[in-house]
Amino acid sequence: MSRRLRTAVIGVGHLGKFHARIHKANPRAELVGLVDGNAGPAGEIARELGVPLVPSIEELPGPIDAVSIAVPTVLHARIAVPLLERGIACLVEKPIAANSGEAREILAAARRGKAVLSVGHVERFQPGLVRVRELKLDPRFLECHRLAPFSFRSMDVGVVHDLMIHDIDLVLDLVDSPVKSFDASGGAILTDHEDVASVRLVFENGARANLTASRASLQPMRRFRMFSREAYVSLDMTKNYGLIIRKGPEWESGREALRTQEVAALAARKDWLQERVMNISELDLSGLERPLQAEIDDFLACVQEGREPLVSGEDGLRALELADQICAAIRSQVW
Fold first, then answer.
1. Rounded to two decimals, what is the model's pTM?
2. What CATH number is attached to the domain comprising 26?
């Protein structure tokens, strides 16, 4: 490992405090300070971690190699652009910016400063999604449900940019084909923005995806299902549990038995059905870091090694552009 990176966290609110603790614990990083104008809760985190809290980036002690930016979305471009132009690597929380124009400014600044830019689509680092990507399946249909009780946070944006954008990024990454068309619906319930949204995406390669998001639900849910010619995968990300179903070694011969044998007889051969005709197994999700830890470690490793992060600035822009289009379609319904 090369030398430790001098890092800082900008914005020490609900999410920024987790970034700060992970930076402090990561062996790649030397957390030199926190930046936040609110000396109350942010000051408590600074004292906990034994680092200074300063109101502006210019007051951080000494040079900085990399930062996490966890301020409100409307401030992302204002903070990230000058840092990237100076060659300081930035992990910008999702969505990358308040609009696609500001997102392009951030990308251009990273190119000018030759700086690493990563976007905080942390779901890419969920253990189940890590395993799904390793399977290298060809998804034909995906279904994502992301439901949450109302939290009184992120009220400056709607549920598409707050929650659904995670699944937009996942689906765009896994399908890897341009979106041909989509149909979206949703509306406001508790805020001035959409609090529930549903969209069906159709891709140029023929794949389909249904995405549902709500921040006005009674119980949280984060479910992901993917169907391909090779397998069916189901993930429950709230429980960190995954299941995969594939054709077993006796699939062809077993299909004849399924047509001719009585249900009671088949029930008595459950193990044969689940292990030989079909292969039903739990995904091994052990040995993987927690998502935010893995995201920050990937970001810091990319800075040290000069490589592209798993979630690039271009990925962040792509997800934001589609989220903007979905929101525009929902607003046109005047719900």
1. 0.91
2. 3.40.50.720
